[in-house]
Amino acid sequence: MRYSILFILTLLISITSCRKDFDTIPSSGKLEFSKTTVYLDTVFTNIASSTYMLKVYNRSSDDITIPSIALAKGSASKYRLMVDGMTGLDGSDADAIGDGKIFPNVQLLAHDSLFVFIETTADIADANPADMLYTDEILFDAGALQQKVNLVTLIQDAVFLFPDRTPDGNGGFIYESLQIGSDPANRIYGFVLDDTELHFTNAKPYVIYGYAAVATGKNLIIDPGARVHFHDQSGIIVAGSIQVNGTVSPPAPPSPLPNLLPNEVIFEGDRLEPSFSETPGQWGTILLASGSTNNSFNHLTIKNASVGLFIQDNDATTVQIKNTQIYNSSNVGILARTAKINGENIVINNAGQYALACTLGGTYDFTHCTFADYWQGSSRQSPTVLLDNTFNDGTTIYVANLVQANFNNCIVYGPNNIEIGLNRSSNNAISFNHNIKNCLIKFNDTNNQFSGNPLYTSVFVPSNNNLMGSNATPFDPKFKNTSKNNLRIGLTSAAKGVGNPTYIIAQDADGITRTTPPDLGAYEHLNN
Questions:
Q1: Does 107 lie in the same domain as 34?
Q2: Helices (H), 342-464
Q3: Which residue, among 62, 80, 63, 83, has the nearest Cα to 140 in the 3D structure?
Q4: Share of residues in the chain with pLDDT > 70 (%)
């Protein structure tokens, strides 16, 4: 009997809680809106935007019917609406459902609200040539009672690069791909840049889908001010050469924001909304494959990749990386494996594992570089900088000579106690040569876990003039704003004026002339 009563009560509650039709009066033109203009962030031509929301309020005590909610451009509009889960009608055909152009007789309860969701996919030809804006209006009602909300979107034209596709004969397609390694079955979604695509200018942004490969014997040249955007799981693989030729942007900028660096080359994801501007891991990597040659990067910013630069066993030439910023890498800022690198005025911050990882040996010279890792995504266990003459692929441990790893006038810092990691193979025949001088290094060995370890004690011998950031010696670079990737220093920084003039690079990463003795790191101090 108890269960029968419970069933009846449940049934009664479910019946009484169902929403019934209600009597309404026409809207009086006194709707209120969460925004009078909805700005949809910049989109590339013919690429769908994110979804934006408008809230519509009925502040009155009456249940109302809005005779129509419609786009002013009707069926020709490049905007699409969804109103409280309804997909609407096509303005050119009253029976066409789901095109989000017209919504007749929309009911809204007293003191209630409804949601309007807005998207767009527009071509550059649809925009106003004077300002590249595409606009429309959402019209609520008509005549004297009509109310409007403006819609505005900036459209960017772009050069789109992507793999070719061919019909497979079964209604589908076969997409171009790239073989990785010696196994023909190991392929990724990608394509080889042809000769007409090997020069990126600053006339239009570039948007890359999949991995764009630079073939052996070919050279990709990227001009100052070029903007390159990568879709998810995309990047560049270099078997030949790449030269990124950014230049300093006068006057020296007060912050590293890309819009203040007109001559900088920018590599980032293809999501242009502000909410994605600092989101790590949006795209893959720039991979310098084994055998690539004569590679150089100058005044380049790499943002939001999985691995900023991945450099594998390059040939006898040395990769030149100068005045380069790498931020928000979900894994590693620079991952080097038996590589040869000369780095000057490099700035790296906010990586999920390492800012810089030099593994499986190699040859490295870093001068006036700032390596920091204030990763905010999760707890980071690894150090900011790793030097290692081994590599473990999960089944085999490989070893190679660390021919040299020279760090001069650099900063290696972060929130963890130990921000430099040194790992040497147990095979003493494999060299591990590191020479770190006149650097500020976070090394707070609270548990004495590295006490007596010659790899570390040799770093802090007095003749090397390194500053140890620890509880006992609280040397702090006092970066301006690590959460915003501003690793410039000020007048009270421990890095100010303690560099060795022997290793001075005449100008800092902003193009400011260094004083003598120089500051440590990539930036000359600011007077504030």
A1: yes
A2: 454-457
A3: 83
A4: 92
